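FW: tagging you since you asked about this chain on Friday. Here's the raw sequence from the shared folder, copied in full. Didn't touch anything.
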Amino acid sequence: MEERLNRVKQQLQQSSYKLTPQREATVRVLIENEKDHLSAEDVYLKVKDKAPEIGLATVYRTLELLAELKVVDKINFGDGVARFDLRKEGAKHFHHHLVCMECGRVDEIDEDLFARS
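HL: got it, structure written out here
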């Protein structure tokens, strides 16, 4: 986890941002829950357990910044809720998902379809 956190810190520094304690707490939650597709509210509830002083607006701003810097992908599965997916190391673009319309289960497509062209 620390190695991944350091890479995010470097990405922030390359764009003249700091890894503040609030940003670090948010990134740690994303790393710990990497297999899940958390909404901002989900992230906030998990961050709040560890750092109760962090507000929902701070989590929203942090997630938007991380999306802008391409640390996370902001995705919508058609239910109107934005979710955040930590970008895989070395990923050059967004990866795709299959969403079951019956139960809502989400499967990630790990194969790089763009590499085939």
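FW: The helical segments are 2-14, 21-32, 40-50, 56-68.
HL: agreed, and The two ends are 34 Å apart (CA to CA).
FW: great, closing this out.
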